[in-house]
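Deliverable D5.2: sample structural annotation.
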Amino acid sequence: MLRSTTDLLGAEVVHLLEVEVGGQVMRFATEAVEIETAAGDTLVYLEGLGELELGTSFDGSSDAAIEVELDSDVAWSTVIAQHVRVERAPATIRRWVDGVLEDAEVLLTGRVAGLNYGEQGEPVSFAVVRQLRSSSREIPPIGATIDSTTWPSRAGTYETDEKVLGVPYPVVFGTPGNIGGEIVPATEAMLVEKDTAVLFPSSRLLIAGHRVVAATVTIFDTTDEGLIVSNSATVVHEQDAVGRWCALVDPEAAGFATVDHGRSWYVGWDGVAFSGGRPGGITGAGDLVEYLIRTFTSTRLDAGRFAAVRELLNAYRIDLAVVGARVTVDELLAEVLPLLPVEPRQGADGLWFRPRRVVASAADVVARLDADVGAVDRASPIRWESGDVVNEVTIEYAGERGSGRMLRRLTVGARGGGSPDALDPGLPGADARVVGSYRARLSQQLFGEVLPLLISAPSVYDPATAARIARDAIEQRALPRRAVGYTGGPEYLALQEGDVVILNDSAVGLADVYAEVRDAVAGGPTVGIPLLLLDDPVMLERLAG
């Protein structure tokens, strides 16, 4: 249970370790304690657990781990000699102040890893590790493949194009190919049935290995160079020979005069592809990320914290397609997450995403840190973080399937409407692809040079999303930020990474400045509180100028 700062004020914190060995739970603590459970049982925790250097969350890109050291009378060598498994044994680390065991905050539940032990009396060390993902399934599944089992010839009149045999079914999210209403080729369509009958031919192009929301799509025949033919086609849903529902279109019914083997077919999605059980389908990045994690991985997702960022993420439209190959969900997330204004983190309740803040308001504040009254002490110099400054961002987006080209680009820089091309800075006329940013201009003046960044986003077709991604980069990185560390008492263990506080420390010129907590690190009698100051860098530069 998360304690408030009031609950923890002046309290003594005890860390607890429970390890299940041979069917029995061994209990240790940073001091000997007896704790009652809600059921009325008394649990004895032996002294011997060393002080833990730990925070409230972990990097979401790797496994969560806490290193522990035990100095107790347990003869671990004897236990292991009796063939009792300790390595990979279940383990839990808690933070307890008072009350019953259930009131203690669970910091990490995982398994013992890297056990180091010797003879009786020697300290024992290991890590308690919770794997971020113990499994990540491939998309599409192995059975979703075009072959003689899934699409056999029917009565000798239907044939599958040999060039698509052995190719996985397409899996499509969003509306690939829809650039603000302009439809372009985006995902492959595969001729799984070619009717060889002379009269009333009817063929099938497989456009997705699942049901789709879109009632119609635009089909492109790009076989003949320089002569791309496109027609609107009605989507139908049929089962393949093993019962998997697929989305298909009939190219002959759509008006294509030539439907032969070996031709190159593509789809531009007029409407939403994957439904994900939602009436309007999955369109926002928040719903997409949640669906992928919950459906195809064993990762535990912090439902409460994810709900807090879902609306933010759903403002970004990601039009993702897996075509002609199989990929893991980890690979898909590695493509999507860097485009979004969040950072993956791990907490006691699982994976969550911390928004990248630029500014904050009074409504965001959860606590006050006041060095002037001795509530906290500064533990580090105030440092400027300017190593990754970027002040001109170009995003290339809307990937054209087959060619690999990016069909659209947008630059956010010092001035709008002009050309960022250094080879011809006097290019006449306005360019709507170049958008001005005050932060970018201020940064270029401050650093005396253009510091560019190129973002490639083939799975973004929505112009508004592309603009958001480019502006996010400028907002986050055009101007340097300040960071500082403080220490305080146990009450500050109630702070969580991402919380906003008001910081007051007149000795270094900080008067009621908003700051974001980067973690609350317990180690010994004090709590370390690393902070990122959220005072507006634009205002700082104006004042300095």
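Annotation notes: Residues 76 and 82 are 10 Å apart (CA to CA). The longest strand covers residues 105-116.
The annotation will be released with the project's public dataset once the embargo ends.
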